[in-house]
Amino acid sequence: QDSSLPVGVFIWEVENGKDEDVDVSIMFSLQNGTGTKEDRSGGHWNEPFAFEKDCERVAGVLLHHCTHVNPFTLAISAREKAGTGVIHLTAFNPTASGREVWQDLLQDGRLDSPAGKSSLTEKGEVTAAAVCASCRVPARGHRTLELALAWDMPRVYFGSKEKLHLSRRYTRFFGSGGDAAPALSHHALTHYEEWERKIEAWQKPILENSQLPSWYKSALFNELYFVTDGGTIWVELPPDCHAEDLQGPAGAGLSHLLPVLREYGRFAYLEGQEYRMYTTYDVHFCASFALVMLWPKLQISLQYDIAVTVVNEDVQPRQYLMCGQTAQVKLKNVVPHDIGDPGDEPWQRVNAYLVHDTADWKDLNLKFVLQVYCDYYLTRDSVDLRDMWPVCQAVMESELKFDMDNDGLIKNGGFADQTYDAWVVNGASAYCGRLWLAAVCVMCKMAEVLGDAEIQQKYTDILSKGKEAFERMLWNGKYYNYDSSGSDTSSSIMSDQCAGQWFLGACGLDQGEFEVFPKSHVVSALKTIFEKNVMSFAGGTMGAVNGMRPDGVPDTSSVQSNEVWIGVVYALAATMIQEGLVEEGFRTVEGCDRTVWELLGMAFQTPEAYREKKVYRSLAYMRPLSIWSVQLALERRASQAPAPVQSPQVPIQP
Known about the structure:
There is one protein chain. The protein is α+β, with helices and mostly antiparallel strands. The chain has a domain at 2-153. Helix content is 37%, strand content 18%. The chain has 18 helices and 21 strands. It has helices spanning 99-108, 171-174, 181-207, 214-222, 225-229, 243-247, 257-264, 281-294, 296-310, 364-379, 382-399, 430-450, 453-474, 499-506, 519-534, 566-578, 582-599, 627-640, and strands at residues 7-15, 22-31, 45-53, 56-65, 72-80, 84-92, 128-137, 142-152, 156-157, 164-165, 233-235, 266-268, 314-319, 326-330, 412-415, 425-427, 493-494, 547-548, 564-565, 609-610, 616-617. The strands form eight sheets. Strands 1-8-5-4-3 form a five-stranded antiparallel beta sheet, covered by helices on one side. A three-stranded antiparallel beta sheet has the order 2-7-6, with helices on one face. Strands 19-20-21 form a three-stranded antiparallel beta sheet. The protein is globular and about 80 Å long. The two termini are 42 Å apart. 46% of the residues are buried.
């Protein structure tokens, strides 16, 4: 419940260092609107409110933003208690100097607190409101002033305006009538102390672990900003929704689809604040660890939404930018790139991505299968695993067409047919080939869990052939070549070449009978990446460049091979830690973290990528949530070995 609330709480601790009492007033002012031209559309108004429940009272101002599409109410408020008074100013002009507001406050530390509603704004006019909390702080004493912001937009249209989504998640607990802002404010101000206790209990084991460096603790928790700040939408299903409304024309056959979505709602977040597609799946593959480790039912809900789209198709033609060719929007039994554009109608029309026809991408289907098993491994929910099993079989059967010579290994198609959508790859590849074999491995494991001997034998045979082909075609004695094309850059060292091993390690399938890749080869590849992509790039202070030539010069064959992808660096560090290269893993991720949070000053807007000098791309991006896979690797390692995890002894100086 409380994870869904549209609220913020601002706590002011006031200490009086003087030998006499001091009267203190703190004012919170806010414009009615969101800073867009609609703020001047006219018809908006404000009114004071008070809300009391269980002998607790809050008071403030409601700011009603009355647009034709997606109207909402903001509430600014403060908590009344013994010794604390709450006063307000219902409306003022925020485009002027604000002199009348300040003069009113400065005269006696109070606002006028007029009764009644404000008048409606005229077209072109903007309005604002203020609330003020006041108290007397005794000499050498301490007081706390508590203020809150809430916003209530229970019903939403996306850009197409075709379908009204009747209820955001919080309306399950506070109603969808558009009048919840006072109750939301009250709940926030009377529960925030409980939230703080729970947050502290959750973070304490990590924050008090002296073996973990402070920069890591900061990054781990602070990268979670994107879960809420990533254009996130969390809505309830309509009360009259039926299974057939969700399954699509093909009938997905997911028996638990309706119960899961009805209980936990539909959840989606953007690839990035600049790349406006919901739940871009090749990127969510990396970010998924944050959801499955912290809000596992949201990850399961998201997976059901993807599964539904797999078995359905969209035959509408579309021209793609990179090739200029026309193809249908969505093929059957293929995982979509995304679930839609917020400017259109997400969930209803998927694949907003226009650059490539992703039906020919080699990684999307595999990433679905890997996530299905990882979700099961971390949640132990066999009901959802059984529900997803036919979908996994369908997408893997679809993927088999990319193994043209039947050697057990898929081949890339000579264009950028995976998440590196500007980096051409041809033939067998370290990235997609390893993802494929990892997915084949988890198919074997899922078949074993579910007692499907026929499918288990089928994929065991494929895995046996594929492992031999992968090693023969790509292993060069030190690392795995980028691809098998024999081109000038096919021997490049890709920092993400162990992505499949990363997921297998996270799922406990990296040793024993399920060991897919020789441990000695994996460790050698990781050490080579550390030597070349990390330490030979920017003096080892900026993480791992995506592509590096064997002579220690970055691969400049594409815009993406010459970049550092923060989310990929986090995944690489997790893989290193899984394989026992703990110091190398911390050194790798520290350079990346310090670059973003200190050198570039991009706190709470971590980009997708940067280069060594002056260039960054796509601020506020989904993929860096993969840092939670580092924490998973550390926890797994700590549970297996008695010795504590050691952090690097020499800090990086950016």
